[in-house]
């Protein structure tokens, strides 16, 4: 039976148990009157006090029938007990948010995106989605439509802003100013194997937190439910926040350095503490949620990289497979760069806190924003490098994309940050 995780409040429920919402439509039957909207207090509580009273009125919610035949079905329509008109809209038991159609038909994978303010999270999601539909999508035969009206609207807006107007995203507003909706996508990957037919569908839930909310352990508590429900975490690290990179970049006549934000080691240790205290599984003291640590803005690091650095080109994805040796080459490169920048403080801490860890390096834009227009993307548009790697690694770990490995398992383990266990 499919278990549905609400992407808004992270309540878990069997799909068949989800309540329905009446659509308040006319029956067409003579004498039938449609239901009236009524205050939905559960939903209004979740949305917070900024919701105007008029918007609290919504179609009545009614429970799923507890019959045997309804148990197996997830998307079946049910007649509203009051007006008799069938509806297929399911809502969360916990918060009464409506699920987009199809959301309840497949498992979902929640990917948490964390990182200090201005580390590049919002730019990254926008470019990642674009790459998964274009260059990368073609290699793996992936499709990634946005789910639900709200994600579809934001998806269009993100694309138009960055790729047509060449505008960078605004600072993401903190949760205290209202709830930030997650982005919901339906990922379809063709099944593999000689007799395999059709595609495998998974819901990808991206939650782009405001860096401002990750400043301290108290602020991060707002995101606890979300972090605890995550199947994988992508921690974005801005290299321009690392002391020695700043020192080296400040001398060049490049763009001005960004303001100093929360350090990645503080975010990582608060994150590990949150996950431990919320019952995420722990192995020998380390949190087992897979953790992709991605250094962003690698375009700004070119002067520090050797001519053959794997960070200067994209992974190949030949045959629609993830090349694990290529990932390990990137992992080693980043581990040595990071260790060089801070004498290994960040890596040691991450490796003590997280059991499944891989380092990545990416650039969403491929070049710094123009010096005379810092809120704009480079004139030639985003020319991303390696943005897909962290997500594909997380998906590969769950068997959702094929991974090609050339080394025996045992040796590989020793190179992925587990050596010092
Ligand atoms: N050089 C370079 N700069 C980038 C890149 N991506 C983002 N930036 C810069 O980083 C700034 C912040 O990016 P955002 O995506 O808004 O960062 P964020 O993590 O979402 O920030 P908050 O929403 O405040 O938490 C941008 O305005 C750019 O100036 C990149 O690939 N290369
Ligand atoms: Mg943001
Ligand atoms: Zn919910
Ligand atoms: Zn009704």
TrEMBL record:
<feature type="region of interest" description="Disordered">
    <location>
        <begin position="402"/>
        <end position="421"/>
    </location>
</feature>
<dbReference type="InterPro" id="IPR027417">
    <property type="entry name" value="P-loop_NTPase"/>
</dbReference>
<dbReference type="Pfam" id="PF19993">
    <property type="entry name" value="DO-GTPase2"/>
</dbReference>
<feature type="compositionally biased region" description="Basic and acidic residues">
    <location>
        <begin position="406"/>
        <end position="421"/>
    </location>
</feature>
<feature type="domain" description="Double-GTPase 2">
    <location>
        <begin position="109"/>
        <end position="300"/>
    </location>
</feature>
<protein>
    <recommendedName>
        <fullName>Double-GTPase 2 domain-containing protein</fullName>
    </recommendedName>
</protein>
<dbReference type="InterPro" id="IPR045528">
    <property type="entry name" value="DO-GTPase2"/>
</dbReference>
